[in-house]
Amino acid sequence: MPAQDPEQKAPRKASFGATVKAVLWAFFGVRKKRDYEKDAAHLNPVHVIVAGIIGAAIFIGTLVIIVKIVVAQQ
Questions:
Q1: Residue 22 neighbours by CB distance under 10 Å
Q2: Roughly how many angstroms between the first and final C-alpha of the chain, as a whole number?
Q3: What is the pLDDT of residue 63?
Q4: Which of 54, 63, 46, 64 has the alpha carbon at shortest distance from 24?
Q5: Taking the domains of the chain in order of start, what are their residue ranges?
Q6: Side-chain half-sphere exposure of 64, counting CA atoms within 13 A
């Protein structure tokens, strides 16, 4: 079994804040290929799922509030 090179470290995982930023860019639909590849290598899948669910809940909640405001004005 070859010894691991001390210079080669495991890829550093991104923080939850970085994950939220990546998910928000994904909701917006614009991302550079270089940034996407970096995210794919560093993001924690559990963080992506949690951030996606939170982002979707906020988006749906915002839409519900807007609809209630518009309907109440008529």
A1: 21
A2: 74
A3: 97
A4: 54
A5: 16-72
A6: 6
What is the per-residue pLDDT across 32-55, written as a single tens digit (0 to 9) for each? 888 878 877 888 889 899 999 999
d(CA 44, CA 65) in angstroms, rounded, equals 32
- Residue pair 43/22 in contact by the 8 Å Cβ criterion: yes
Query: Rg of the chain over CA atoms, in angstroms?
Result: 19
Give CA–CA dist 50/63, Å, rounded: 20
The C-alpha angle with vertex 23 and arms to 22 and 24, in degrees rounded to 5, equals 90
38: tokens are 């970096």
Helix ranges (DSSP H) in 1-74:
16-28, 33-42, 45-72
Task: Give the pair of three-digit tokens for residue 25.
Answer: 């860019």
d(CA 31, CA 18): 14
Looking up tokens 């994950």, which residue turns up?
A: 19
